[in-house]
Amino acid sequence: MSFDEKFAARPGVVYLVGAGPGDPGLLTLKARGLLASCDVVIYDNLVNPEILRFAQRDVERIDVGKIGGGRHTPQEEINMLLIERARRGERVVRLKGGDPFLFGRGGEEAEALRRASIPFEVVPGVSSALAVPAYAGIPLTHRELASSVVVITGAKARSGEVPGPIFRSLAQADTLVVLMGTAHLRAIADELIAAGRSPDTPVAVIRWGTYRGQRTITGTLRTIADECERAGVRAPTVIVIGEVVALREKLQWFEKQSAHQAAREEFAFVAE
Ligand SMILES: C[S@@+](CC[C@H](N)C(=O)[O-])C[C@H]1O[C@@H](n2cnc3c(N)ncnc32)[C@H](O)[C@@H]1O
Asked: What Gene3D superfamilies does the record tag this protein with (predicted)?
């Protein structure tokens, strides 16, 4: 069986597909095959537009992106859209940033599809929770420094508030990876310090990880909110808290590479 046959989309099926965190090189082979053979792609705002190029040129692309506080398609409408398109017999790729089942509402969409008796498949993606720290040179575990990792949201689903009790109960995990926490960084740091975590615990805030413009701000629980405020950091970020963050000093690689690449391109442009 060829690659195309093996990973081709089937009619009347919805594929809940992870697009990875941004770098198109992190897309899975299966995601790429499905994109190349689908009739419609329904995608979120954290999907890198470059990834949409893997779909055929004339394929319908529907942006249901959720932009913090801005225009977005209500979840109910997205569910209905998936159901309608599958009922028409279309091959539907529902493309989501990172992994569809990690803070991606993939579970809710799968439930809606099951209720409507629409067949679906889940194609896991490389989550920003893992890939973004890796591109910042931060291993989440390390034999001497960290043997536990927690991935947590910085904002409660409906109220948008910091889930204080959860942070307090998980404060002693060696490494904490926080998604959707940019706006609440100060409150998160305060919760963790109040729960007994040292104010000197290293923290990294990584914005637009795995993209060429990736930027990382580092500090400690005591200083990070001020550092980020000074630097004007906004979402989307992945926040990493724990001793492993200190390894970045030795292990950072991607931002250096991007800076060299940008300098080379600039030079080539000037030299032309
Ligand atoms: C709704 S969650 C979706 C997470 C996604 N399902 C995943 O597995 O990566 C959105 C949050 O993921 C994080 N995120 C996703 N992609 C990112 C990136 N390239 N750089 C930094 N943060 C990212 C941010 O915390 C953002 O607010």
From this structure: Cobalt-precorrin-4 Transmethylase, Domain 1 (3.40.1010.10), Methyltransferase, Cobalt-precorrin-4 Transmethylase, Domain 2 (3.30.950.10)
